Amino acid sequence: MTADSATTYGARVFADGVQQLLEHALDDMLLRRGTDERPTPICIWGKHGIGKTELVRDLARDRGYGYAYIAPAQFEEMGDLLGMPTVLKTADQRDVTRFAPPDWAPRQEGPGILLLDDVNRADDRILRGIMQLLQFYELVAWKLPPQWLIVLTANPDGGDYSVTPMDEAMLNRMLHVTMEFDVKAWARWAERAGVDSRGIHFVMAYPELVSGRRTTPRSLVQFFQAIRSLERLEEQLGLVKMLGDACLDEATTQAFIQFVHLKLDRLPAPEDILGTDDFDATAQRIHRIVHEGNTQRLDILSLLITRLNNRLIQRKNDPSAAEMENLRRFILLEWIPNDLRLAMAQELVRSERPALQQLYAVPEVGKLLLEKM
Asked: Domains of the chain by range and CATH?
């Protein structure tokens, strides 16, 4: 499949679709526990910095699975891939040569994921050496333990990427999918990962800036980590600009400076809205930002609603009674348009969280929901 003078393979989906494919492969692998059948490796294609590696790592961590990582582009010798030859004695005292598994090779029983990151940046010799691993889950004299899935990531062929093309024989040993950036999926991940709240607001307000030459989801997270300790950004704009220019495109840095000038960095985080002891003051603060000038910034209001919903649906603990009261008051703010109010309430009650489904019991919210059924 060709796009922007670069070639990728498989369906083009967002992060949620890639995760669904990986989970299916892992579940299918576990169903075959105790057999000699090995799962077909999966190759995730996509531009640099969109979170392919993090998605695989986080999936293994969330499932409590083993996780092993290699970057074949860093391998200079075949021994880095195959392991080193060792002379051993057989039972009849003959000397034989065996390859000892390299340090990166998983040794513990699965389930687990072995990630071959940026595989097509490796030298052609290394790529050819990997083919046996993909087909048989083994290399020369050693095998991967049972219940391990091989996952690869790759950058598009051609275009601006310096990659080694994979031939049909190698491509046919894998299942393929292409991951594309989606701001909503990224925002859900960012909430779980604890990314600086101002950064999440910025990306959701300016999603068109994410796919630049230097600006990627990865470089943006690096920038947000760098400014995390700066409490009042407007007082240190020189430093903010310097940090932005260090890892982002100039247009992205300029947009972030404008974001600060518009006071959008002061938008409350979900925790500020749910946990406030003075909801009226918080609501007034939001109202001033959303109604700056003569225009109602519905995009900013929608951004806040999306973040609130993501936070409520994804967090492990149920909201407290005080948080539910603040949520009720937020949903019923008179200056929130009814379509946004309804969409917010519908997403919350359709979640699998019983506490959030209690919104049906709020007369004003329940009436609104029932009228639109």
From this structure: 2-180 (3.40.50.300), 183-266 (no CATH), 268-373 (no CATH)
